Amino acid sequence: MIMSTSESEDVTFFDMAVAVCPECGTPIAESGWYGMDMESDVECYDCGNVFNMKKNATDRATLTVVLSKNNKIKRIGVEEKIDIEE
Ligand SMILES: [Zn+2]
Asked: How many folded domains does the chain comprise?
């Protein structure tokens, strides 16, 4: 067994978008690909309203997902903000 003083961390990335339900104002987080590129409809988990993710989007970002040695999610941060069309 190789002993190491600093724990190695693997990193992966997640593209996500945020949209706000036009009925009740609840913010919804979705995959950026699903919500923005596919322009999918999503269901508000507060009021049940179905709305278009892209038309109601407020932000999109690439998240950094830091993994522990056994690939469990350890920490999430914002890697890069992606401009959305107004
Ligand atoms: Zn709602």
From this structure: 1
Q: What is the model's pTM?
A: 0.79
DSSP symbol at 47: T
Q: How far is the CA of 48 from the centre of ligand 1 (A)?
A: 6
Cα of 25 vs centre of ligand 1, distance in Å, is 6
Q: Which residues surround ligand 1, an ion (CB under 5 A)?
A: 21, 23-24, 26, 44, 46-47, 49
Q: Which residue has the tokens 């959305």?
A: 84
Q: What residues in the chain have per-residue pLDDT under 70?
A: 1-8, 85-86
Residue 68 resides in a domain: yes
